[in-house]
Amino acid sequence: MLTIKNLHAEVDGKKILKGINLEIKRGEMHAIMGPNGSGKSSLSSVLAGRENYTVTEGEVIFEGKNLLDLSPENRAREGIFLAFQYPVEIPGVSNLNFLKTALNEIRTYHGLAPIEAKEFLKLTKEKQQLVDFNANLMNRSLNEGFSGGEKKRNEVFQLAMLDPKLAILDETDSGLDIDALRIVAAGVNKLRSVDKAFMVITHYQRLLDYIVPDFVHVLYDGRIVKTGNKELALELEEKGYDWLKEEVHQKESV
Amino acid sequence: MTSDKSFFDFISNGLPGPELRKDADNAILPARQLAFSRFRALGLPSVKTEEWRYTNIQRFLKDSFSLAQEEGTITAEQLKTVNTRVPQLDSYTAVLVNGRLQTALSKLPAEGKVSISTLSGAANNTQLQLWFDKHPHLQQQPFAALNAALFADGLFIEAGVNASLDKPLHILHIYTTAENAFIQPRHLLVLHKGATLEIVESSVGLNETAIAFVNSVTEIILEENAELWHYNLQSSEKNSRHIYHTSTVQKADSRYHHFNFTLPSAELTRNNLSVALTGSNTETNLHGLYLATDQQHVDNHTFVDHLVPNCNSNELYKGVLLDNSNGVFTGKIHVHQDAQKTNAFQQNNNLLMSEKASINSQPQLEIYADDVKCSHGFTVGRFSEESLFYLRSRGIGEEAAKTLLVNAFAFDITDQVHIPALQDFLSEKIRKYVSGAINN
After folding, report:
1. Nearest residue on chain B to A88, judged by CA atoms?
2. Where in the numbering of this chain does the ABC transporter domain appear (chain A) (predicted)?
């Protein structure tokens, strides 16, 4: 589904990604871990098309298309969804209107008619339950005055509504208490299916207790320095990142 | 007028003859003559005049204009065109062409406690004689004086004690002229005690080449406990220049809700809006939304005069500026020494969508009472890149995303509009405005 080859990117002239290689197939759950500043969020930003990042080398193929040629909206329409680490508050745009606009823009792109009001309402109700999203928030302005937990739930709720092929969750667990974490993780698990893939960026093993990954990648200094299964996450939890950093530096000096 | 003479010289040669004053009624002739001397004494403002610092009005008066104020007629076909450009409301309508009421094209309410007639026909009315050109804020305004001296005609609306209409009244101001013309309509609205009205005014020009310079005055009297919802929509074409004066007197317990919507694309719009609060416990809400493109110059000049205690005024003006357009906002609040327990709030927010657009905003608060709550604020900003990216990352294209954001920006204003069809009309205008901005 997604093939990243030797991806290099920089922001304001500073090299952030220095040769990422990654293959994600349908049905897979990939976790990206790594110390602060290793490039985890940058990778998600580059995939979603954030404009202040410049790709200097490499390619990203998504479902046979060159992803880097597409605008952020067309990436979303092709089936990429980024759950933001810091969801944006937009006063004056209602949650409901926002979702309807997004859904219809995606449908139009695929040559489908706008969704019927009744069908939209039904879909909304169904997906709200998935993450226990408070119905009262639906008519409120997008994320305005939402608590940290409500914002993150809203991200997963949007994910459920827009039904992407590849969902990238950027530190969706940060700022969540343990109950909210369980709810959000349960929502994500319900959305897992054989034709969807997930890339979950996290600092902590804690989230991976609930969302069990097929692969764990460790990002360090703009590169994936180690790939393993869920056991790797446990090992990192126990030993930290320093041993990995040393390994990398030793290899480099060799 | 010949172009080698200045506008002022041309007019100052004397009060033009009766052929320019079609009402031909002498009842208000002395008042007209008084206003004319006032105009001559005041002279034309220049950028050195404080009130006109940011609007070089002389630049807009350089062309030659006819003062004849032709009657102007429109066909049913033209009215159809007009109707595609104004909100379609379930309302009564008063159609005015160059300030003159077209009864045949209008749909006025049946005779009752609300009467709608022409100003020229009401020259002997006691209300007209009581209020004509009396508003204190009009006295220092040269264009208002010029209008009082030379106006051709307009509406006289009188709502009796506790009167109301079952539907809003939509006033369609249509301006059409074959040659450059200086058109001066004048209107008077009197709402007696406890009367309530909802009025929507839409201005449309039908000129392809000639310039219509409209210098209009509307005087409004709200007697005790009267309430007026007053929407003013301007969407004339490029070669239109407008100076509007809306001057309202509010007596005790009255409520005035005014909206100024300035939409593309008249090259000059100057709104002089002033409210004098002469009775206690009044409520005044002034809302403005201006969307400017191209070389448009939109100047909102507002004045809330708190003369007595216990009045509330709230003012919110928002602007979205494109291309080389220019916005001006002046918000004057005067709280007199006696006006204790005044609440007066004012806010002006602007969104610049182009590097070349500009805004000059100046709050002027003069507060002479000590027990008051007053505040003002001004902001100017651009689109938040983070908000745009958030929307686009959900599959929303740039155009739809910007439309959502401009609608969100305008929401505080549009949300206050009490007529759903008018709200829809405005959001459609915003959509077209943004789409035009992106596809240009």
Report:
1. B387
2. 2-246
